[in-house]
């Protein structure tokens, strides 16, 4: 080759486009990223249909009242109104609920919380619908609400099922065991709202067969379909849920009390009906994180090693059960944290009140107890005069240790390794005391803070969560992989909520089949169920189903070649779109091997079963666990109590990194959500009424509130029972970061900090404190 030809070839190679990321372990970009950033992604609020009507829901202004009468006459007579429905128009089951069917579609005799649906209206204009809903006359006998969960034990029953939803008494070890030192604490966790970026919206379209199609941002479409069919008095086959673009989900995304009136109105009018909730309606309608009261007593020896943990955990479920039983199981099961505790005695209760309903929010149960047990570890360290990180290291759990539920931790549990990683990471520099650095002060530019009043604190948090469902939940997902004309398509009812499942599914097929172009089909209930999009389920269960289906297609692809060359398919491998044999005799491309064939396979993934906790709180209730360590650095103005989170150093147990960029984004998002829990997010409900149900009164952290987040260590110790060995990554930083921030504020101020979010007065240091 001449020098000129070599130079030309080198120039051509240099100008060639970079190959796209491919397969597992690569940072494959999300397929919908461009549409979302350009604002062209179709969300439920963007839907339209010919002959569209608009819906509005009348909600109770009282947290507790007896309904004496409902008069819809004026609303029905308003021009443009096409239908008004109440409890009398529910032809099927009058009750629904995710965990337990105990919630009315429409209140009929009693309202049990502020915002409970009473009637719904369909009209030809959204303003008309809202005015008509306001014209429904409801006569109430206002009753005293039960708003204190401690009072619920003695109060008159708020529901036919009683006020106690679940009680778990956990007994583990010797009740007479005692330590040389004892620390106690009372802790309160506030009500966090998931506050989705996009409020609830949906479209219901009647079908010619008398059924209905619901276009929703559902995170569990088959459950929503079955609930709707039961309420409408229809067979499930006549109700179809089509999942639209989901504008983020850190909880049960869709309020079923919003979906059901929508479908009823479409069936009544025979027209498509759309409902786009206002922000206030969104706050009133969906579930929130359980406010929790926790009492703890820790016993430890003179070296700080735990001897016994005693705790009482009280979850405020609000008016209805929802998933409170599941949240309580997580709270009780993880009440001692990722520590070795030979003796534990925990009492857990979930009770009804007239507060807004609570339900599944990322890290439910585990987040509340983490804040409490980490505060207890700080107290032990202070009482013994040892480093807070050291006392945690002396008690850190490892693989093979036993939970207080009696379950052996068989998955990787590198807790000590995670804590050492964040402890040894260099601390951030101190802020400079100069005018141009005012923005570094708590309160930001133009804030009231004074540099001389600022104290820096360093704190730690160790958290753990369970993955998948618990206590015997049948976790299963089904997926189909099809290949035609060199293009692969994945059909799976796993909803993309921002957790990255559609990207992961593409990577799995690329890795297994060597096909670059992979599409994931839209989700609807014509596909087999895949379950809810929570607790990292879809990475494990749905990802596992996609992998199994792809491997079945791979066998179909390789079998003819293997037969031709007299070898087994195990001796062939697919790499970068090429099929080769172990001895190099066979070498061809996937495209050539396909040769116009159409291949497909369907597979299921079902993890190993679990069991319910018994009457002593014992049992193998959890499939797998994930762990996280966070070191928080905060600056606190001790005169006014303002807090600035300077840095959060994170080390996490991830099993295996499947998409580095996506994983880092999920961890950072979870940590930032925890900042909101720690400092600002508290949905206030005086006397059961939601105060300021808007994003002005409910303070979400913004980009200016987000601290520096340093992911200092990702431990890739694969869980052998999980597909790919990967673990869920989103929930455990949410669980851990509030506890770490509270620990840092305690270090800066010397104050106990026993409530989340942290109130300014809790961080003020006076001579007396």
TrEMBL record:
- What Pfam families does this protein's entry cite? Ald_Xan_dh_C, MoCoBD_1, MoCoBD_2
Query: What terms describe the molecular function in GO for this protein?
Result: iron ion binding; oxidoreductase activity
The family database entries (SMART domains) matched by this protein are listed as: Ald_Xan_dh_C
The source's superkingdom equals Bacteria
The biased composition feature labelled Low complexity covers 1-17
Domain Aldehyde oxidase/xanthine dehydrogenase a/b hammerhead per the UniProt entry, residue ranges: 38-144
Where do the segments described as Disordered lie? Answer: 1-27
**Protein name per its UniProtKB record:** Xanthine dehydrogenase D subunit
- Please name the source species: Streptomyces viridochromogenes (strain DSM 40736 / JCM 4977 / BCRC 1201 / Tue 494)
């Amino acid at each position: 080759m001449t020098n000129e030809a070599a130079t030309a070839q080198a120039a051509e190679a240099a100008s060639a486009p970079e190959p796209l990321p491919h397969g597992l372990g690569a940072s494959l970009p999300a397929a919908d990223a461009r549409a979302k950033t350009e604002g062209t992604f179709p969300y439920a609020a963007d839907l339209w249909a010919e002959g569209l009507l608009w819906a509005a829901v009348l909600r109770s202004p009282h947290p507790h009242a007896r309904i004496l009468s409902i008069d819809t006459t004026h609303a029905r007579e308003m021009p443009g109104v096409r239908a008004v429905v109440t409890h009398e128009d529910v032809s099927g089951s009058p009750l629904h609920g995710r965990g337990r069917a105990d919630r009315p579609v429409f209140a009929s005799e009693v309202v049990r919380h502020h915002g409970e649906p009473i009637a719904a209206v369909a009209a030809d204009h959204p303003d008309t619908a809202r005015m008509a809903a306001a014209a429904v006359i409801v006569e109430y006998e206002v009753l005293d609400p039960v708003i204190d969960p401690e009072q619920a034990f003695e109060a008159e029953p708020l529901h036919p099922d009683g006020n106690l939803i679940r009680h778990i008494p956990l007994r583990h070890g010797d009740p007479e065991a005692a330590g040389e030192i004892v620390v106690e604490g009372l802790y309160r966790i506030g009500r966090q709202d998931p506050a989705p970026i996009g409020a609830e919206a949906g479209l219901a379209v009647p079908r010619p067969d008398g059924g209905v199609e619901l276009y929703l941002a559902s995170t569990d479409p088959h459950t929503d379909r079955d609930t709707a069919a039961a309420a409408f008095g229809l067979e499930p086959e006549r109700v179809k849920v089509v999942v639209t673009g989901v504008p983020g989900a850190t909880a049960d995304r869709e309020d079923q009390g919003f979906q059901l009136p929508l479908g009823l109105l479409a069936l009544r009018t025979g027209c498509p009906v759309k409902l786009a909730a206002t922000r206030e309606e969104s706050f009133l309608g969906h579930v929130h994180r359980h406010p929790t009261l926790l009492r703890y007593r820790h016993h430890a020896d003179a070296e700080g090693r735990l001897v016994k943990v005693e705790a009482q955990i009280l979850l405020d479920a609000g008016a209805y059960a929802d998933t409170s039983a599941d949240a309580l199981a997580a709270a009780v099961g993880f009440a001692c944290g990722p520590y070795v505790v030979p003796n534990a005695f925990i009492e857990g209760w979930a009770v009804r009140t007239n507060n807004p309903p609570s339900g599944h929010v990322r890290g439910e149960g585990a987040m509340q107890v983490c804040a409490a047990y980490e505060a207890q570890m700080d107290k032990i360290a202070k009482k013994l005069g040892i480093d807070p990180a050291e006392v945690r290291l002396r008690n850190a759990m490892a693989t093979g240790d036993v939970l207080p539920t009696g379950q052996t931790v068989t998955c990787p549990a590198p807790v000590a390794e995670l804590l050492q990683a964040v402890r040894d990471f260099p601390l951030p520099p101190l802020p400079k005391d100069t005018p141009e650095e005012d923005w570094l002060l708590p309160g930001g530019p133009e804030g009231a803070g004074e540099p001389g009043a600022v104290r820096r604190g360093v704190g730690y948090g160790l958290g753990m969560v369970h993955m998948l469902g618990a206590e015997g939940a049948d976790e299963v997902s089904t997926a189909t992989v099809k290949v035609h004309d060199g293009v692969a398509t994945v059909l799976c009812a796993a909803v993309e909520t921002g957790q990255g499942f559609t990207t992961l599914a593409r990577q799995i097929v690329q890795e297994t089949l060597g096909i670059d172009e992979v599409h994931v089909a839209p989700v609807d209930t014509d596909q087999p169920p895949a379950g809810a999009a929570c607790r990292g389920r879809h990475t494990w269960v749905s990802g596992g189903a996609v992998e199994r289906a792809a491997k079945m297609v791979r066998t179909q692809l390789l079998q003819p070649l293997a037969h031709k060359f007299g070898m087994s398919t195990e001796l062939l491998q697919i790499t970068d779109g090429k099929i080769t044999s172990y001895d190099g005799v066979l070498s061809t491309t996937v495209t050539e091997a396909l040769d116009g064939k159409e291949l497909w396979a369907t597979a299921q993934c079902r993890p190993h079963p679990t069991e319910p906790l018994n009457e002593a709180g014992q049992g193998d209730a959890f499939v797998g666990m994930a762990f996280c360590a966070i070191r928080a650095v905060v600056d606190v103005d001790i005169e006014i109590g303002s807090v600035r989170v300077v840095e959060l150093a994170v080390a996490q147990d991830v099993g295996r990194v499947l998409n580095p960029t996506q994983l880092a984004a999920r961890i950072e998002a979870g940590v930032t959500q925890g900042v909101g829990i720690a400092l600002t997010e508290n949905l206030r409900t005086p006397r059961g009424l939601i105060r300021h149900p808007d994003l002005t009164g409910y303070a979400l952290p913004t980009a200016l509130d987000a601290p520096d987040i340093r992911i200092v260590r990702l431990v890739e110790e694969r869980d052998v029972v999980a597909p790919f060995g990967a673990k869920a990554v989103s929930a455990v930083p949410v669980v851990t970061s509030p506890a770490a921030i509270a620990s840092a504020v305690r270090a800066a101020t010397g104050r106990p900090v026993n409530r989340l979010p942290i109130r300014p007065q809790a961080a003020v240091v006076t001579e007396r404190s």
